[in-house]
Amino acid sequence: MFDLDKWQEIWLTITRNKTRSIFTAFGVFWGILMLTILLGAGKGLESGMMDGIKGFATNSCFFYSDQTAVAYHGFKKGRSWNMHNSDIKVIRANVKELKYLAPILFGGRSENNTIRGDKAGSFSVRGCYPDYAKVEAQDIIFGRYINNVDVEEVRKVCFIGKNVYEKLFKRGENPIGQIIRSNGIYYQIIGVGAGVSQIQIGGRSDDMVVLPFSTMQRAYNQGDIIHFMAATTQDGSNAKIMEEEIKAILKSQNNIAPEDDRAVGSFNIAEQFKMFSYLFLGIRILIWIVGTGTLLAGAIGVSNIMLVSVRERTKEIGIRRALGAKPWNIISQIMNESLVLTAIAGFIGLSVGVAILSFFDHIIQNLPPDNNVFIKNIVIDFKVALLASFILIIIGLMAGMLPAWRAMQIKPIEALSEE
């Protein structure tokens, strides 16, 4: 049952010395404020990084050819080589971890190389398979992406980026079926899209003219070579294993020594993403250690002030014990005083911290869309706020344990004899 007189007594005790209570409570206030801001900033940094890779397959690997470092099968060291169309079939047949495989060709970019009527712009050209949209997602604005029929029939069609569309067409104009000329060759537009991810492979997707892979090989007289290759794993498969298997096949198919570690270049997005995950886990742990340590420092201050309070109230506690007050009555009063002082300061600090984070988050949310901010959503989750509140309550109780124990050591006769 709620005892109003008891809580009024606790409040009067806390406010008996306002200056001392304020300075003591400031340590707790500052601790929870710093913890809140650090948690929000850490969350914002992680959200910014995740937003930057949104739409990009985090279970992907990329492969490219480099000069050989070992002489092999009559070929000299330092030989240049290329991946070929035949490699695609072998990889698909032998790598069980593979989900999507997307060979890529890169074309040239020159001054005003892409033209429609009297409008022109400088844009890169890329030849892709349909599966590349599973690696680097596209937000389709008009039409569709490259499909398998486009590749099989070597169609002279193209999928253009958002910036290409804005340069060559009026706003709102439907580009589907329109003809553009890129690097001297005419293509019919089948779709327009915007890149979802900020990760760029060979340039920004928004500034790209994408052709069917086979069309680009023929239009650019590339034979059957491949400049770059993207691969993603099956769900739950190990990207590192897939990476090693594909590299082994490429070496075997192209007369490269198995021990040559330089000839087949690769980078593993899955491994990089795992490193980032560990990094942010470490940041979160560090934030909790620093924040909790600051809170503990504040709790020590509360404990010290409560010890002083117990010392000043020695006679009062002695009288209460002499009149028959039970030990729990004394302990609960000291513990409650500590808890109230900690809770008030802590919840004010938590509220101020949330308000500061909300203020800066509002500013970031209203920045121009093209402003690449590396930190986003600097707010703390409700569960995290509850956890911080729970820790605050525990610390408040811990801060009152030593003063409560000290109060219980006071003997009524000795207390009554003190001046």
Considering the chains and any ligands shown, give keywords for the structure.
419 residues, alpha+beta, 12-stranded mixed sheet, two-stranded antiparallel ribbon, 13 helices, 53% helix
How would you explain this protein's 3D organization?
- The chain has 419 residues and is α+β, with helices and mostly antiparallel strands.
- The protein folds into two domains: 4-54 and 274-417, no CATH class; 62-272, no CATH class.
- The chain contains 13 helices and 14 strands.
- Strands 1, 3, 4, 5, 6, 7, 8, 9, 10, 11, 13 and 14 form a twelve-stranded mixed sheet that branches. Strands 2-12 form a two-stranded antiparallel sheet.
- It is elongated.
- The chain starts with a helix and ends with a helix.
- Mean pLDDT is 81; it is low at 5-10.
Average per-residue pLDDT, rounded, comes to 81
Total number of distinct structural domains: 2
Low-confidence stretches: 5-10
Sheet of most strands? 12 strands, mixed
Write down the Rg: 34 Å
Give the number of DSSP strands.
Answer: 14
Number of helices: 13
As a percent range, the share of strand residues is 15-25%
- Written as H for each helix and E for each strand, in order along the chain, the element string is HHEEHEEEEHEHEHEEEHEEHEHHHHH
Proportion in helices = 40-55%
- What general outline do the C-alpha atoms trace? elongated
What is the terminal separation in angstroms?
37 Å
In short:
Helices cover 53% and strands 17% of the residues. With 419 residues, it is α+β, with helices and mostly antiparallel strands. The chain has two domains: 4-54 and 274-417, no CATH class; 62-272, no CATH class.
